[in-house]
């Protein structure tokens, strides 16, 4: 994907009691302080969910295997790739790969035949996956430091970085930190660093919580159905910068990105919330802090003016100096509390049958 070539209150839930039945329809509360209680009520651990999850996931969680990786030695393996290769194809058990803090200079791919993998870093310590792949060498989507094809993937407490330099326009310097193609994946307290095309959120239902994503142009792109909660979106550099290039290409596709209680930061005033790489992108920001770095028009103008009628760009109860809608492009959706509700619950990612909290280190 190049610069040009690819070119209420009525529904808020105030948890007065800890005894709340988890459903796909409980909306994320507007009050940020209530997120931990909402998460606790709606994403319960496996011990309280037996028999209520996807059958394959239920069976996998019942038989967990822990593998340790320590690059200095003393673990089961010294590299992440060695640990991945030790998992048999057709794996049916949850495999938790515990990573010791430090820097792992590896290009890692988890193939489709190895589902139920968790990459787990130590909270409060820096566990870094890093590589320098570029589109010029690997192709855009294959340049990622971490590529996940398998279903039921989890990652927690990791830094995933592509160290290739900021690309010049037209240089094939796109360099991904991660590509996620597996279905039913969750990311907790992970940080993604890159420039153009940092995160290829490409396919499947995904959940990001307490994460950090940094980039310049189209730094979250793809056709995933994803819910980002309490995540910082940070644009670096100057000039034209775009957060999302969501690639829904028809009205029938059930995918899109929702950002809830997120924060947009960076420098300058040239950051756009999204652009129409494909014809029907769907992106919603709710309860999100937008600093002055957000361009007043909000969304990048469509190069194909026919897309003015097919994009779905929504903003709901966002705040901060970059959130003012008076100068927004005319095709920004004016969504109300009823329209936003499906986008701010786990139902958007069908989460009640597969989403689990991160395991403890």
Automatic annotation (TrEMBL):
Domain Pectinesterase catalytic: 67-351
Enzyme nomenclature, EC number: 3.1.1.11
Pathway(s) it belongs to: Glycan metabolism; pectin degradation; 2-dehydro-3-deoxy-D-gluconate from pectin: step 1/5
Pfam families with a match to the protein in the record: Pectinesterase
Keywords, ordered alphabetically: Aspartyl esterase, Hydrolase, Signal
Domain of life, per lineage: Eukaryota
Signal peptide per UniProt: 1-22
Name assigned to this protein: pectinesterase
Organism: Camelina sativa
Gene that this polypeptide is encoded by: LOC104734762
